[in-house]
Specification:
217 residues; mainly alpha; two-stranded antiparallel ribbon; 7 helices; binds zinc ion
Amino acid sequence: MTVRTKPPESPAAKPPSYAAVPPRLIGGHLALDFANTLSLRGAVAEPRDRLVDYRELLLWAGAAGLLSKSEARQLQREAQARPDAADAVLEAAKALREATARLLDPALAGGPAELRLLNEALARAPARDRLVARKPGYAWRLDGEAEPLERPLWPVLWAAAELLTSAERERVRACASDPCRWLFLDLSRNRSRRWCSMEDCGNRAKARRHYARSKSR
Ligand SMILES: [Zn+2]
């Protein structure tokens, strides 16, 4: 039997841009897909962070359906005009990502510090006070003063808060492959999903088992 598998990713390799290699949104939930912009969270060496600059955050948000192309272009222009503010938002995005990953990953004990960070970000986000019709569908009308560059973070923030307060929180799993540790919602009927994806970590584990068996023969 031959098992096709890719070689393990080198943690030192420079991550490709989301423009070239779009994000794999396998988490089943926006907050988890955002957590997965950091790969190899369980690696002994450096994890791999795809959010290398504000543009990557915009590309991720576009791929996740949070921004239209014209909204992303507008924010990119704003970021070019205010690079220091864009850098600050990127740092806030990463802090938010790590706090939500710690609160959601059953193996990582998130506590009061992470909750405080999430609450501070929620307080900075605008209020969602009513729905307005938009083509297609509907959108929140946002109210109040807020840093426009943080816009891609608001839906992630709201999604994280909703997941934390829902029963689905108990279905959050980390990929059984160490170092992968990508997060996903296990929606399988018997709650048995182990891998971020069968094509990737699942296949690698299968190949390893096959190798171990063939050696022990
Ligand atoms: Zn995995």
